[in-house]
Amino acid sequence: MPTPARTSLDDIVQAGRDILASDGLPALTMQAVADRVGVRAPSLYKRVRSRDDLVRLIATTVAHELGDQLEALVSRDGATSEAQAQLTELAHAVRAFAYACPDEYRLIFAPTCETTRPEPEALTHSVGPLLRITTELAGPDSALDAARTVTAWATGFIGMELAGAFRLGGDIDRAYEFGITRLAAALASVPGTPSNQAMHRDPHDGPDHD
Amino acid sequence: MPTPARTSLDDIVQAGRDILASDGLPALTMQAVADRVGVRAPSLYKRVRSRDDLVRLIATTVAHELGDQLEALVSRDGATSEAQAQLTELAHAVRAFAYACPDEYRLIFAPTCETTRPEPEALTHSVGPLLRITTELAGPDSALDAARTVTAWATGFIGMELAGAFRLGGDIDRAYEFGITRLAAALASVPGTPSNQAMHRDPHDGPDHD
DNA sequence: ACCTGAACACCGTTCAAGT
DNA sequence: ACCTGAACACCGTTCAAGT
Fold first, then answer.
1. In angstroms, how far is D2 C1' from B46 CA?
2. DSSP state at residue A136
3. Between these two residues, A142 and B207, which has the higher pLDDT value?
4. Strand D nucleotides where any atom sits below 7 Å of a protein CB
5. At B107, is the pLDDT very low, low, confident or very high (cuts 50, 70, 90)?
6. Chain A CA closest to residue B180
7. Other beta carbons less than 10 A from residue A8's beta carbon
8. pLDDT < 70 regions, chain A
9. Distance, Å, B102 CA → D1 C1'
10. Closest residue, CA to C1' of D3
């Protein structure tokens, strides 16, 4: 005899996010999620394969939302400001997100293990805006390398920051500003790639030397 | 009546490293360590406050060793090659270490939580060589910011690589080369700071704009 | 079809009891 | 002084039994 469902996958994912945000990843136990949605722990396995699966679902959701956020930010003033300024804005937005939601951020950009990593599609989506900017900035041939350089730097910087790894004094905000300024300049300085007309350059003067 | 010690802190840390290297962090349980050193799990608490404490001890040891390794590398040809080349060499050495010992690497540069992070002294030691190079490259005023930029980029890149985050195709080795080349050039290009005579520049022309 | 209690195998950790 | 078995509180997960 069928009984009505007392919860849903969305409920469970949302409950998980709430617990993650308020108490951190170790507190995200099946027991805690079950309590919050008003069900016993074993029932969760009707909607979710495992705890890692749940964590991955949360990570994917958050990554997708962050992507939307960055997309909105970039498309809002994409026409008015130039690529270097957009890149800086993007870098600050990601850092602001990490400050606001450190545990969610870590789930996306500092995944504990393979099984909890957000789905590739969500990651790709969250990097979309950056890729458009680096295409404009460094040209189509170098766009991917440039995006990877920026992503690596930003996630590395913020990850170290969240981990409390900057212990030699100095102004951390200033160090972030230093990094994005130098990076933006370095990525734009491809010979033969004017920073605002990348789409019109000759594809045969590829300067990447390595 | 005193009984002779059947193990030691060094034994325990070494056993932990072995387990970490062969089976990963989740396999590094007190039980597994105890089995390996030939003792029962509760006995470990005579030498170690907790599992996290043990993980931290391992992380500290590894960070210190990596520092020694990088120190040797840089001081070996510090006089002969220029700063940009040394920086590139350093970046490749760190990446090689991450490939050889991914779990040990993660313990240092992608710490799971605060309580397992290597001791500050060990981290500082491991970054020493880099700081000397960026001093030469970017000048004393920007040395710390420059070192942070490089560290952030390298740890971010390698962390993403180990997490399998580069999913858009392209040559990853090439992307790493791209990054370090651009970074080295960007950090050296401080107005008024010739890349090989940073120690002799006028400290009052500090160009950092932010 | 969904939910539950009971159970299992595993954690880290404590502690009184042994030598 | 060190080691141990037993125990505790917690995990994630499975499953037969209920409705």
1. 8
2. H
3. A142
4. 1-6, 10-16, 18-19
5. very high
6. A149
7. 11
8. 1, 78-79, 189-210
9. 39
10. B43
Residues B132-153 have pLDDT tens digits of 999 999 999 999 999 999 999 9
Residues of A in contact with B166 (CB under 8 A): 148
Interface test with A, best of B123, B182, B183, B189 (most A CBs within 10 A): B182
- Cβ-Cβ contacts under 8 Å for A153 (sequence gap 6 or more): A179, A180, A183, B149, B152, B153, B156
* Spatial distance between the Cα atoms of B152 and A165, rounded to a whole number of angstroms: 10
Query: Which sign does the torsion angle of CA A149, A116, B96, B20 carry?
Result: positive
Instruction: Please say if the pLDDT value at position B124 is more than 90.
Output: yes
Give the Cα separation of A52 and A119 in Å (integer): 13
- CB of B23 within 7 Å of some strand C atom: no
Q: How far, in Å, CA of B105 to CA of A132, rounded?
A: 32
Contacts of B165 (CB under 8 A, 6+ apart): A117, A123
Please identify which residue in the block is written with the tokens 């390398």: A145
pLDDT of residue A112: 81
Cα atoms in the 13 Å half-sphere on the side-chain side of A10: 1
User: What DSSP designation does B3 have?
Assistant: -
- Angstrom distance (rounded) from CA A92 to CA A70: 10
Residue A190 confidence (pLDDT): 58
